[in-house]
TrEMBL record:
Positions of transmembrane segments: none
UniProt keywords, alphabetically: Dioxygenase, Oxidoreductase
KW Heme (keyword) present: no
Entry's family note: Belongs to the aspartyl/asparaginyl beta-hydroxylase family.
Oxidoreductase recorded as keyword: yes
Name of the encoding gene: lpxO
Residue ranges annotated for the Aspartyl/asparaginy/proline hydroxylase domain, each copy included: 71-224
Gene3D superfamilies: B-lactam Antibiotic, Isopenicillin N Synthase, Chain
Protein name, UniProt field: Lipid A hydroxylase LpxO
Signal peptide annotation: none
Highest taxon listed in the record's lineage: Bacteria
């Protein structure tokens, strides 16, 4: 029975790696979070009630409950722009956002509206209309305003878990093809008042090569799934694992357990980076040896 689970894990990991036209190098994929989540992700794909393509055409057809977001985009935009003027759309203060920490180095900024829970107190205070609107759409599990200033980029990456789909609603964008996201090699350029939905477990990247700023509403929407047990599993993972990635905007907002520990893990990561600068061969040798030891432990326990 143990070997059945090992083979299922390996088959799932290979499927996730080969899924789509754009792929990470094998060495990077071995240590990617999506590899460890592969069996769960394959389950989400297998029972998805919406297409498992990189982009989801016509989100309103699959998610009619989201239509008020597009209808009320000017009101949402007004709150986002007021936040930007207050300089509240920003990088995390310290190491409190493990999910997006690497993005901050290249200019990306965010203000959380909710994260698999009720609105942050700061969001309810500063964005009352948007948070009230989101409260009426329970399929939106997470939401934030994100900013991509001129010259910023997000390098190719994939999100680890397939239990949701990503919605982007343009609020204040350059309205220019030089500001875009690519998902599995397919490009979309943001426009004010228009939206797109995509599967964030495909490799994707973004760039703003214009002179204008880009502010959008960014939402994680629960993936519709066949069969109640699969839906229950997805909600269990979201509630007990993904929710632990909650990151604060201000003092008084909730910080999830993963982010409370992140500063300690990051201290170890800084030491690892220093080792890589001094001796790349030793760094990669230790890195892959740790993966081999983990696999051996799983196989022989």
């Amino acid at each position: 029975m143990k070997w059945v689970f090992v083979l299922l894990f390996l088959a799932s990991a290979v499927y996730v790696h080969r899924r789509g036209r754009v792929r990470h190098r094998l060495g990077r994929q071995l240590l990617d979070h999506s590899t460890f989540m592969a069996p769960l992700n394959v389950l989400m794909y297998a029972f998805s009630r919406v297409p498992t393509t990189p982009f989801i055409d016509d989100p309103a057809r699959h998610f009619p409950e989201l239509e008020p977001l597009r209808e009320q985009w000017p009101q949402i935009r007004a709150e986002a722009l007021r936040l930007r003027e207050m300089q509240q759309i920003k990088a995390a203060d310290g190491y409190t956002d493990v999910g997006f920490n690497s993005f901050f180095r290249r200019g990306w900024k965010r203000f959380y509206l909710k994260w698999y829970d009720e609105a942050h107190p700061s969001a309810a205070e500063l964005c009352p209309q948007t948070t009230a609107l989101l409260r009426r759409i329970p399929s939106v599990k997470a939401a934030m305003f994100t900013e991509l200033p001129p010259g910023s980029e997000l390098r190719p990456h994939r999100d680890p878990y397939a239990g949701s789909l990503r919605l982007h609603l343009g609020l204040d964008t350059p309205n220019d093809d030089g500001c875009f996201i690519e998902v599995d090699g397919q490009r979309y350029s943001w426009r004010d008042g228009q939206w797109t939905m995509f599967d964030e477990t495909y490799i994707h990247s973004a760039r703003n090569d214009t002179q204008g700023n880009r502010v959008i509403l960014f939402c994680d929407v629960e993936r519709p799934l066949r069969f109640a047990p699969v839906r229950a599993l997805n909600r269990f993972v979201a509630r007990h694992l993904i929710a632990a990635g909650a990151s604060p905007n201000q003092e008084g907002d909730r910080t999830g357990g993963i982010n409370r520990l992140f500063k300690y893990f990051y201290a170890v990561r800084l030491r690892a980076k220093a080792l890589r600068e001094r001796n790349q061969s030793l760094y990669y040798g230790l890195k892959y040896a740790s993966v081999a030891l983990a696999v051996a432990f799983i196989v022989w326990v």
